[in-house]
Each structure stands twice: as structure tokens, then as C-alpha cells.
Amino acid sequence: MRNYIGLIHKESDSDYGVSFPDFPGVVTAGKSLDEARRMAEEALAFHVEGMAEDGEAIPEPSSLESIMADPENGDGVAILVSLKTPARKAIRINITLPEDVLERVDAFAAAQGLSRSGFLARAAKHEIDRGEAA
């Protein structure tokens, strides 16, 4: 299990955003601090799974000192995010969606700091869990 530094960012009119200095471009958010932490673990796990599938090397975690020495990270509050599970193999699929639905999916996913695949996987899990609970 590896631990990475996540940086929480919060402005008065926003949710709690989380970014990962070791994984530029990976961001997520939550309405509460607890939700942001949970979403951070999911986003990190999903991103690392994709990297493993693509044959990319997973970076070693940076130290807190090196991350906070970067002036761009000064406004973030550091949290430790555990990569608890080994990367699961993701399977590439081809689906067809109406154009307007795809545009809405992409816009919503981007606003949540997710990829299209990450959003669709999360939505599918949500609906399956909801159906099983009924």
C-alpha cells in the first residue's frame, strides 16, 4: 500500500477540491471534507488503474516537504491518501450514446474532476448498488 499527498483546496463558494501533486491533472471534489477524502481515494485508485492498463510507471510518492516547498501548493492543506488496492485491470469497451447525453456526461464528469470512463463506472456502480438495495 502506497500513500500519496493530496491537497485540499476550498474557496467560500466551492466544494472541497482535492488535487495530487504526484499526478498532475487528477482532481476530484466533495461537498464535505469526508466526501472529498473518500472521492480522493477513488480518484487516485481509478487513475492508477488506468496508468497500469496503459503500461505507465506509477510514480513513487513525493515527500510532504518537497510538495509543500512548491509555491503553487502553498494554498492547499495536505492530506494522506492511501492507495489501498492494487490496480485492477480495466477493460476497454465501445458504447453508443446520443450526442446530447454524451455532452452532458462529459460536462458533468469534468465538473467533478473525473474522466468520462470514471464517471460512467461510478454511475454504473451507483445504479447497481441501488438496484440491489431495493
UniProtKB/TrEMBL annotation:
Among the GO biological process terms of this entry, one is:
regulation of DNA-templated transcription
Q: Please state every residue range assigned to the domain named HicB-like antitoxin of toxin-antitoxin system.
A: 4-124
Q: Name one Pfam family in it.
A: HicB_lk_antitox
Q: Where are the transmembrane segments?
A: none
Matches recorded under SUPFAM superfamilies:
Ribbon-helix-helix (SSF47598), TTHA1013/TTHA0281-like (SSF143100)
- Superkingdom is Bacteria
Protein name as annotated: Type II toxin-antitoxin system HicB family antitoxin
Q: Which organism is it from?
A: Rhizobium sullae
